[in-house]
């Protein structure tokens, strides 16, 4: 409980300071550039939360995520997926569900910093919003998408949404499969209790999309899913169910 209270106090302070700075920068129309105020404030905010929570982040295969203009596609089981990744990966922007926009300070700040909100229940609107994500990629940012769409309760992968792969094809950006492991005990879905631990973030070799078309989205989704599932099995002994992307219409 002491850890949770300490992390909460630090998170509130970091959010007020960092998010407030980002909102003001947005109002002043400060340019979004590598190493600029948006990048610095995002990373500082996440690093403070990770530190206060007693979390250590270990990166694997980071050489695969060093270049800009990528779409990083991974699994999602905890809010600490976001905190851990933002703490160590510069120049990244997240694709988040529309509900995040309603979170005080965080929602407006994320919008000002160039993160993209997706209306998951409105397919047409979602694909339009993915175009904004493509603009972020063309501007040199790594765009991070949690392809399962929302947090899960367990590590085995769940079916992926198609939107991230349509985005990758339309933007001509390589897909970097990503596995995050270790964050469930830190803050599982449905709980606000914080526990320390180690986050392992694995980046796999990029999957090129040059020459692919909309009709290739299923194969790209399957290839990404399989790469992450195979690593999850070999590294942590967690098996994911078979998945056929042709069974989903989204």
Helices and strands in order, then pairings?
Blueprint: H1 2-27, H2 37-52, E1 55-60, E2 70-74, H3 79-88, E3 92-97, H4 106-113, E4 116-118, H5 123-138, E5 142-146, H6 163-171, E6 175-181, E7 197-203, H7 217-236
Parallel strand pairs: 1-7, 2-5, 2-6, 3-4, 3-5
Antiparallel strand pairs: 6-7
Helix pairs in contact: 1-2, 1-4, 2-3, 5-6, 6-7
Task: Outline the structure in words.
The protein has 250 residues and is an alpha/beta fold. It has one domain: Glycerol-3-phosphate (1)-acyltransferase. The protein is 42% helix and 16% strand. The protein has a seven-stranded mixed sheet with strand order 1-7-6-2-5-3-4, with helices on both faces. It starts with a helix and ends in a 14-residue tail after the last helix. The model has no long low-confidence stretch (mean pLDDT 88).
In angstroms, what separates the terminal alpha carbons?
41 Å
What value does the Rg take, in angstroms?
17 Å
CATH 4th-level superfamily: Glycerol-3-phosphate (1)-acyltransferase
**What is the strand tally?**
7
Overall structural domain count: 1
Helix content: 40-55%
* Biggest sheet descriptor: 7 strands, mixed
Gross geometry = globular
Structural class: alpha/beta
**Kindly state the mean pLDDT as a whole number?**
88
> What is the name of the CATH class?
Alpha Beta
Order of helix and strand elements from N to C terminus: HHEEHEHEHEHEEH
């Amino acid at each position: 409980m002491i850890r949770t209270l300490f992390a909460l106090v630090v998170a509130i302070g970091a959010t007020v300071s960092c998010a407030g700075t980002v909102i003001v920068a947005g109002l002043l129309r400060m340019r979004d550039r590598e190493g600029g105020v948006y990048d610095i404030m995002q990373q500082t905010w996440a690093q403070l939360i990770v530190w206060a929570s007693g979390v250590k982040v270990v990166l694997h295969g980071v050489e695969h995520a060093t270049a800009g203009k990528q779409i990083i596609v991974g699994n999602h089981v905890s809010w600490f997926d976001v905190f851990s990744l933002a703490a160590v990966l510069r120049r990244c922007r997240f694709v988040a569900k529309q509900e995040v926009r309603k979170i005080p300070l965080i929602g407006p700040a994320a919008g000002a910093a160039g993160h993209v909100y997706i209306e998951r229940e409105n397919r047409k609107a979602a694909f339009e919003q993915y175009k904004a994500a493509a603009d972020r990629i063309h501007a040199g940012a790594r765009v991070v998408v949690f392809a399962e769409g929302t947090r899960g309760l367990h590590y085995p992968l769940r079916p992926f949404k198609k939107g991230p792969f349509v985005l990758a094809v339309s933007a001509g950006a390589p897909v970097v499969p990503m596995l995050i492991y270790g964050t469930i005990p830190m803050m599982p879905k449905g709980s606000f209790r914080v526990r320390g631990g180690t986050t392992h973030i694995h980046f796999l070799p990029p999957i090129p999309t040059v020459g692919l078309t909309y009709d290739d989205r299923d194969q790209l989704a399957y290839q990404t899913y399989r790469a992450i599932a195979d690593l999850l099995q070999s590294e942590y002994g967690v098996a994911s169910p078979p998945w056929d992307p042709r069974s989903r219409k989204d």
